[in-house]
Amino acid sequence: MRLPETAAVLAVRRGVREWVVAHGGRRPVVVGLSGGADSLALVAAAVVEAGAVTAVVVDHGLQEGSAEVAVRAAAQARALGCVEAVVVPVQVGREGGVEAAARAARYAGLESVRDGRPVLLGHTLDDQAETVLLGLARGSGGRSIHGMVAWKAPWGRPLLGVRRAQTVQVCADLGIEPWDDPHNADLKYTRVRVRNELLPLLEDVLGGGVAKALVRTADQLREDGAVLDGYADTLLQAARTTDSTDPDSRGLATTDQPGSGPRDTHRPTLSIEILATAPAALRRRAVRSWLADQGVTGLVNSHLQAIDELVSNWRGQGGVAVGGGTRAHRLVVTREHGTLAVRAQPRI
316: which residues sit within 8 A by CB, 6+ positions away? Predict the structure, then answer.
C-alpha cells in the first residue's frame, strides 16, 4: 500500500525511520496492534520503513466482541502490507488490578510469538506525558518520572515524539477506521482521567505545551539518571559482601538485628559501613537496584525511606516488609551482622 505524503504520515514515518536507523537498521519486526489509531499508524509506517512486519493482536477477552475486534485489526494489518497478522488470545489475571494484569498478559502474549524479533509498540508523546505525570504522583524519586524509553530489548517505541492527534490523522489520510476502545473513555481508570481531565486542565491553566514540557523533563532526567546509575553501580559493587569484605571478619558488630539468627550466606548482602558513608542519593539508588535483583517489587517512597533508615539512622527498629514474596513467605529487608539483607519470612 502506497502511503500519501501528508504531514501526519511523514511525521510518523520519520519517527519509525529514525528509530530503525538508531537501533540496528532494517530487519523483520513485530508490531503490537490493538486496532487503535496509534498502533495502526505504526503498522503503516513500519511496513515502509522497518522491513518485514508481523502484526500481533492480543485479545484480552475483557470486552464482549473482543474477538471480532481482533480479527478486524488483523485484516487491516494485512491490507497495509504486513507479511503476517496473528491474533493471540490471553487470559488476564487479577494481580495488581485490571490495568496491570492486562498489561502483563499483553506483554506475555507478544513475547510468546516474537521469535527473537524486536516488538514495536505504539506509545506516543501523549502516552509519555501521562506516564510522567503518574510517576510524579507516586513520588518515588527521579526514576519514577523517567518515562518510557525508545528501546529496552525487546520493546521498541518509535512514536514517542509523535502526538496522538497525528496518528489519528494518519488513519484518516489512509481511509482506515481505527477501533475506539471503550476503556479509553472509562473514568474509573486513573490513566483515563489523567488523559481526559488532568492534562487538558494543565494545558488550559499553564497556557499549552505541557505535554511536550513533561516529555522534555523526562528526557533530561533520564540522561542525568544514566550518569548517577553508573556511580551507584560502582557503590553497589563495593558494598556487596564477600569473604574479603565480610564485616564479621573485620571485627564489626554482628548482632545489629536482635534475634536475627545465623547469617544466610546464600543471599547476597550489602555492607552497612560502605553504604552509610556514601551520599544519600547514590545509596538509595544502589539499594533500589540491589532490591530489584533480589526479586523485590512494588517499591514506593515509604519503603525506600524506611530501608534507608536501617542504614543511616538505625535505632534498633525491625525490618521493612516489601513486595515480591510468595503465598507462604513475605520478603523483609533487615539489618543484621553489619549488613543489609533480604529475608523470606513465613506469613502469619
Answer: 258
Indicate the range of 25-29, 36-40, 262-266 predicted with least confidence.
262-266
Minimal CA–CA distance to 130: which of 80, 229, 82, 199? Answer: 199
User: Among 116, 61, 107, 67, which Cα is nearest to 87's?
Assistant: 67
Parallel, antiparallel, or unpaired: how do β-strands 151-152 and 119-120 relate? unpaired
* Cell representation of residue 113: 510469538
DSSP string, 274-328: HHHTS-HHHHHHHHHHHHHHTT-B---HHHHHHHHHHHHS-SS---EEEB---SS
Cβ–Cβ under 8 Å, residues 338 and 252:
yes
pLDDT of residue 141: 65
Q: How far apart are CA 74 and CA 267, in angstroms?
A: 47
Contacts of 90-98 with C-beta under 8 Å, sequence gap 24+, read: 90/58, 90/59, 90/60, 90/61, 91/61, 92/60, 92/61, 92/62, 98/62
The whole-number pLDDT of residue 137 equals: 84
**57: which strand partners?**
87
Residues 6+ apart with CB under 8 A from 288: 143, 299, 304
What is the number of alpha carbons within 13 Å of residue 313 lying toward its C-beta?
6
Determine the Cα–Cα distance for residues 127 and 125; give it in Å rounded to an integer. Answer: 5
Per DSSP, helices labelled H in 80-189 are 98-113, 125-138, 164-174
Query: What pTM value is reported for the model?
Result: 0.79
- pLDDT band of residue 140 (cuts 50, 70, 90) is low
Element (H, E) at 199: helix 199-206
Backbone dihedral angles phi then psi of residue 343, each to the nearest 5 degrees: -120, 145
pLDDT in tens, 266-296: 568 999 999 999 999 999 999 999 999 999 9
**Cα–Cα nearest to 61, from 31, 94, 37, 88:** 88
The pLDDT of residue 255 is 38
pLDDT at 343 over 90: yes
